[in-house]
Amino acid sequence: MTDIQDYPFAAPAALEPPGEWAELRERCPVAHVRLASGDEALLLTRYDDVKELLSDARFTHHLVAEDAASITANESGGVFASGDGASVRGDAHREWRKLIGKAFTARRVSALQPGIEATARRLVDDMVERGGPADLVAALGFPLPVWVICELLGVPDSDRDRFAYWSDTLLSLTRYTQEEIDAAQAEFAAYMRDHVAARRATPGDDLISELITLVGALDGRVTEEVVLMTAKGLLVAGHETTANMIGKMVAMLLADRSRWERIVADPSLVRTAVEECLRYDANFGFGIPRYISEDVEIGGTTLAKGSTVVCSLSAANRDESAFEDAAGMDLTRSPNPHLIFGAGPYACLGQSLARTELQTVLKVLVERLPTLALAVPAADLRRREGLLVGGLERVPVTW
């Protein structure tokens, strides 16, 4: 397979993987692809290769080098060009992540869980009261993670519709124009700057108040601008991916109703079912890029300095060499060392919070709505297009 293929690949259906994944894993584990920008990059699809590169602390997703590929069709504004702590690089960036990571302690996540469950129950009750069919994404998948991240950051969730638009523009692959992105990001930055200033004047027990106390850390490299960029990054990452995953998780479980019925009959499967949905998700999105700042050998192939490499987490999670019956869904799979949260020093900081949200949502749904069903055939579900993150436009359900 020497042809340069356009990436991301088209999928045959919303919940199905592109056929190219299996073919590339088998015949071309380091593939040349063309991105939405027109730039070329390398694509990794095998589990071991993806895990090895993601675990290498030398390489980050900040694509700021002059010879790095542009990911999106726009000139600027993409999440991989800015990211959290945009002016903190290298060892300092890793130290900054450690400082942020301390905020996602088990104690803090545990303290949020009762509120997460109460909010999930309220949202489900509201959905039932309005009557079906209902869109699970709009009724539950989106508002719950927004409430959680706003609670964590101390931001009013009444602004959730604005957050959604700002997040989408930051994660745009082809959906928005440069003018739309620039305007939205200027609004987002102004909003967060005002919020940071308010928290500096009147600190609370939220994460932003905590981050403000770190200004001046790492020999002065943690500036207010770094705190602002981090707050923006956490707001986007903290709700967008989890909101999308709630809809995808429920759709995957309802697409084959025996899966849902099995969890209803045995709620102890909630934890392993969530992990398997994360592994099985064929609609994760673009993947994680890495800029190769020095030659490195991966899977017997030398990746040259100056290359931009895209790690397809979802393709890696379907690798038969890493998972028995990888193309099948096993709700009892354990251990389940999937890579959907990444690996190594740059793994997702909020993965414990995301797991808590997903497990709580599934627990509440199987208890409250054991008869839940898709209101349309799974083949009629439609992907969200033009964004770096995967998702479903709607998940119509009945009960």
UniProtKB/TrEMBL annotation:
Molecular-function GO term, any one: monooxygenase activity
Keyword Iron: yes
Pfam assignment, any one: p450
SUPFAM superfamilies per record: Cytochrome P450
Cofactor: heme
Coiled coil: none
UniProt keyword list: Heme, Iron, Metal-binding, Monooxygenase, Oxidoreductase
InterPro entries: Cyt_P450, Cyt_P450_B, Cyt_P450_sf
Recorded family membership: Belongs to the cytochrome P450 family.
Protein name: Cytochrome P450
Protein's organism: Nonomuraea montanisoli
Lineage: Bacteria, Bacillati, Actinomycetota, Actinomycetes, Streptosporangiales
